[in-house]
Write a structure and sequence with these properties.
CATH architecture: Beta Barrel
Number of helices: 2
Helix content: under 10%
Order of helices and strands: EEEEEHHEEEEE
CATH topology: Porin
Structural class: mainly beta
Number of domains: 1
Distance between the termini: 27 Å
Radius of gyration: 21 Å
Length: 213
Amino acid sequence: MNGMKVKEGEFKPSSPLKKLRQNGAQASADSLAFTGRVDFKLPRNLTVGASTFISGVQNSTGNNLGTLYMFSPHIWWQYAGFDIRFVGAYATVSNAEKITLELSPSTCQADKTTCLVFPKRMQGFYLQVAYNVLRHFDTEQELYLFGMYENYDTHASVPSGYLKPKGSEVRIYNFGLSYKPHPLVALKADYVREDYKDKKDNDIYRAAITWMF
């Protein structure tokens, strides 16, 4: 598939890869990307696998600036009312400084404190445990009580001489419930605590109706 593309000024430190993605229509493909996934189906409804994403990073003129290497292991186990999931992610970037300079060339070379710093390394994981309390009743409906813990650092390592942006290291605690009156419909309510290392923490309360069709 087409790879990632850097545009000057388009960058969000909390999600470094988001602005580098291209839309399907008229996407540039001077730098390509490759992705793959392997799953192993084990007894007692246990799935273990991993996926990878390798992508070139190009600038607006089509020149390759570097390469992103990402690896993500995952585990999914559904058994006796439990739904347990683990997903990890580890990514490294070659020539992260060239990408950094491309994001803010007008000011970055003179003053590194003004740079939109692109990371050399990103890493994180989440673990979710959910339990269907309605499995003890004669019903096909489901009511899951769940808890999730996330821990990630979008700028685990940056090019030499540059500063990590604030808010890159975060731990997230998420608790709530999900009621499924139908297999394709869910009513959710949860609480989220975002615990940042170097900026103000956030408390979030959410409610949602979701469906698939």
